[in-house]
């Protein structure tokens, strides 16, 4: 993996461990010579990951829609800042630039980005690993919800297993490096239920 896209909050959240782990992820990516692709802001967890990558000699590429330039405060110290016209173009560009995805704690935007990448993978539009760094159990309820989707017949188990999860950065990167995309399609047939 040469580049990983990180989706995360533009705020720090209520627990210091979010910021600490965001910084540790940035340091680890730099040490592993994996470039960061992210949303381009210098605030919150987004800024913490980028600053840590840069402070440890790594490369950070930001992708920021023009209309968010003032709201999210563009990071001016990046290796490269790519300005785009829309949120959809931002996600498409981030997907084009990366070899995998990691989600850290975040809000609606983080979830929307994560689930769009999962949906694209489920539809076979890419075969990249998609991972959650489950810091302090932040995503436990979401993981449980995906298990309910499987038990209720609305999601195939093999598609739920596409979502790689760990609370340990090294373990998560190892899972991503060894990921093999499923070869089955998205649709559940009535006979399968």
Automatic annotation (TrEMBL):
This is Cytokinin riboside 5'-monophosphate phosphoribohydrolase. Its EC number is 3.2.2.n1. It catalyses: AMP + H2O = D-ribose 5-phosphate + adenine. Pfam families: Lysine_decarbox. The keyword Ribosomal protein does not apply. It is an enzyme of class 3 (hydrolase). It comes from Flavobacterium calami. NCBIfam families: Rossman fold protein, TIGR00730 family (TIGR00730). PANTHER family: LOG FAMILY PROTEIN YJL055W.
């Amino acid at each position: 993996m040469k580049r990983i896209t990180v989706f995360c909050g533009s705020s720090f959240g209520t627990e210091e461990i979010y910021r600490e782990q965001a910084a540790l992820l940035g340091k680890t990516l730099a040490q592993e010579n994996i470039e960061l692709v992210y949303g381009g802001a210098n605030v919150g967890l987004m800024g913490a990951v980028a600053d840590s990558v840069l402070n440890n000699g790594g490369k950070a590429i930001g992708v920021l829609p023009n209309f968010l330039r003032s709201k999210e405060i563009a990071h001016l110290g990046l290796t490269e800042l790519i300005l785009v016209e829309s949120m959809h173009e931002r996600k498409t560009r981030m997907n084009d630039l990366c070899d995998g995805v990691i989600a850290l704690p975040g809000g609606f935007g983080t979830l929307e980005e994560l689930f769009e990448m999962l949906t694209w993978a489920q539809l076979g539009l890419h075969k990249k690993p998609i991972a959650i760094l489950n810091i302090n159990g932040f995503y436990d309820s979401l993981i449980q919800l995906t298990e309910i989707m499987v038990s209720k017949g609305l999601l195939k188990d093999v598609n739920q297993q596409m979502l790689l999860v760990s609370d340990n950065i090294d373990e998560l990167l190892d899972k991503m490096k060894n990921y093999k995309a499923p070869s089955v399609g998205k649709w559940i047939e009535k006979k399968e239920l």
